[in-house]
Amino acid sequence: LDTTFTHLADLNQKALVGFITAGDPDYDTSLAILKKACQAGLDIIELGVPFSDPTCDGPIIQRASLRALKNGASLARTLALATELRRTTNTPIVLFSYYNPLFQYGLERLAKDASAAGVDGLLIVDLPPEEAGPLEKALKTTDIHIIRLAAPTTTPQRLKMLVKGAGGFLYLITRLGVTGTGGLDYEAVKKHAASVKTLCPLPVCLGFGISNGRDTEILAPFADGLVIGSALERIIEENAAADTPALVAAKICELREGMNRAQSSR
Description:
By secondary structure, the chain is α/β, with parallel strands linked by helices. It has 12 helices and 8 strands. The chain has an 8-stranded parallel barrel with strand order 1-2-3-4-5-6-7-8, surrounded by 9 helices. Helix 3 (59-70) packs across helix 11. The radius of gyration is 17 Å and the shape is globular. The two termini are 26 Å apart.
């Protein structure tokens, strides 16, 4: 992760981060989608661990988790997917999860297995820094970053606490509510991102509601990276498995083209 952001900064480029639910719609198709997404130009993969109660996520990602779980997805299978993906790409892999599956799996076991799978970061939606001590201890002998989230309501004092012990990047939520497309106030996001960047020593990536090339063109100058999830999961949900990898790749190209337009216009 650190190398990726340094390299992109040297090129005056921003990171394109893509969230994809592990095992959706099934293990083999999910692996094909992930491989194609990396080839299409994702800078970082957010590999979602399917969970039965994804309270942070909107309907699209909720349904993705349910599809994956019905087809046998689990944390162990997610790590197997990461292992197979790592054999074909150097793209950083971040596990996006709720704490329950990780805690049930066992933190020491998780640290060992995630490291062996080539995972670079953990983004745990519902684990506040006050409760992260056991996980931080388990990860101490690995190179895996704990990535934290900040919301529009996060105070400067809270932000300083969030970045202590964190790494990789800060996931800055663009609006209140759950994940999903639409409803962004670009000017409000710009102001919020600017204030956060003055306090945060880590790269800042924007997420929630980013869905198309226009969004990426407008928002790319405000941060170090952009996170897209529901827009990719919608493609997986609405298309036959045989077509999905190519359609996801085409969407990634659209998003990247928007970011490139932003760069060329500066």
